[in-house]
Design goal:
152 residues; alpha+beta; five-stranded antiparallel beta sheet; 2 helices; 33% strand; elongated
Length: 152
């Protein structure tokens, strides 16, 4: 049997490349904004785990792994604050291990802004890199399709 190459029209490939490129820029911008808004989180405080729950999938998306959402409370400057951390595990873990107190970083000027080490919030790089790679592949496929069309 002869192998057939699937050739998408160059216009569709261009549209896909633009969609992936715009998505990558938006996710990268979100990551940069997160990093800038949390750059002053320098004060370490002890947060007490109030509640933890497990959800199948990764941060709400169904699939392999589990997301553990932990609600914390901490005190700073005589006031009580609360925050949430998201921890992703590949296998089922004992939920009681998430009830430990945790040191977190906060912004002393705005104590409601925090960073929880090991938490899945604010990462953003993995998806951005994936979208950038998909964008690059789409552009290459569009160029290849154009080259094949010009050879005919």
């Amino acid at each position: 049997m002869a192998k057939k190459d699937m050739v998408l029209p160059a216009g569709i490939l261009k549209i896909l490349a633009v969609i992936f490129a715009v998505s990558a820029v938006l996710f990268a911008a979100d990551t940069v904004v997160y990093r800038i808004s949390h750059r002053n989180c320098t004060e370490t405080v002890l947060a007490h785990a109030e509640h933890a729950e497990r959800e199948s999938g990764r941060k709400g998306a169904k699939g392999r792994g589990y997301t553990y959402t932990v609600e914390y409370s901490y005190e700073y400057g005589g006031e009580e604050y609360s925050c949430e951390g998201y921890f992703i595990e590949d296998s089922l873990a004992d939920i009681n291990m998430f009830y430990n107190d945790k040191e977190i970083k906060i912004d002393p000027e705005r104590p409601e802004v925090y960073i929880i080490g090991g938490s899945a919030d604010g990462g953003g790089y993995g998806l951005s890199l994936l979208l950038l790679a998909a964008s690059a592949v789409s552009i290459v496929l569009a160029a290849e399709s154009r080259r094949k069309a010009s050879d005919k």
